[in-house]
Amino acid sequence: MELTTNDLFPRLVDLVSRERFSRVDRSVQALFKKTLKRMSDGLPFIITGYMPAMWLRDSTWQVKPLLRSQHPKVIDLLVELSLSQVKLFLKDRENCYLKLVSHLGLSDEMEMRRYFDSEVTPERAHFGRWKSDFKDPKIFQDKFNSIINSKS
After folding, report:
1. DSSP state, residue 78
2. pLDDT in tens, the chain (152 residues)
3. Closest by alpha carbon to 95, among 56, 133, 58?
4. Is 15 exposed, middle or buried, given 0-12, 13-18 or 19+ CB atoms closer than 10 A?
5. Range(s) of the domain holding residue 147
6. E strand or H helix at 45, and its extent?
7. What distance in Å separates the CA atoms of residue 92 and residue 112, rounded to the nearest whole number?
8. Number of compact structural domains in the chain
9. How many other CB atoms are found less than 10 A from the CB of residue 85?
10. Cα–Cα dist 46/64, whole Å
């Protein structure tokens, strides 16, 4: 993706010091050049480091600042990233459940299993994030729904 920091955040250069803008710019360029890759199906994948189990959390946090951008390419990227998270979540659902049970140290796994199977769904995993973080959540929701419907 060929976008500059000025493309993403047009007024930022006037709001922060030159040094801070430079740091933001380096981070933005590193995201687009080093950590943003495409999977074989064309969906984005954010390289997050050495802990694959933390990919969902870390990839979300790496792009969180982009929620403030209204650039159409960024909206598309965020929707596609959400879609790839949903897809990977579905692919590794059992491992996700086992890690959760182990982490919480639960004695009643059956109750947790019922809760997990009924409440922890890809739709709920993404639901609400952009409603609280994104300036125009309807654009984001509509784009996500159109991709979900076209890829199923």
Report:
1. H
2. 788 999 999 999 999 999 999 999 998 998 888 888 888 878 888 887 665 556 667 777 788 888 888 898 988 888 888 777 777 666 667 766 676 566 566 666 676 677 667 766 655 555 555 556 566 667 667 766 776 676 55
3. 56
4. exposed
5. 5-151
6. strand 44-46
7. 17
8. 1
9. 21
10. 12
